[in-house]
Fold this protein.
Amino acid sequence: MTSRCVYVGRFQPPHCGHLHVIKWALQYCDELIIVVGSAQESYTLKNPFTAGERLEMLRLALADEGLDISRFWLIPLQDIAMNSVWVRYLEVNLPKFDKAVSRNPLVVKLFQDYGYEVLVPPAYKREVCSGTRIRQLMLSNDSRWEKLVTPSVAKYIKQIGGVERIILLAHGD
Ligand code: NAP
């Protein structure tokens, strides 16, 4: 029987920390369901990229890392107002999963309350490999962000005008 783990993130954008978690998680399951959470969010400073863009970036990142795409499910999911039933919402929207992977304390607690084992990955270069830091670097037009994502993801973000978008969002209104 195929074992599956589920890993939920916002992936704004997918970066070196996420990739480290993904590779770590593959040791513990045959397949990994990567949920692009907060799919309804985009064009804000905290969530600049659309769910579709984040899915594209994840595929590019997995390919850049030479990972076998057949081991992944990439699924966008909107948030819901009731945390207490969020895991049930995942159960009905995702392929069956056995375990969860997360470092987010709320996410860990919600899965545990439904009886799931949660695998907590080690932090990887937490001060550097962070979505918040990457978005701040982009906002400052500081090209160091490019080294924190894979080459194809950096190219994609430039193609869609991601840096200009973040600067516009900061100075809009
Ligand atoms: P994220 O910032 O993209 O992070 C995803 C995961 O990767 C987290 O566990 C995070 O750990 C880990 N990570 C990031 N950088 C890392 C590094 N350098 N080394 C090791 N691990 C690293 O996304 P998130 O905010 O946790 O995403 C949770 C999603 O679940 C959101 O979309 C949220 O809205 C959704 N959610 C929804 C509901 C609901 O709808 N009611 C309820 C719960 C959660 P850290 O936490 O340590 O950064």
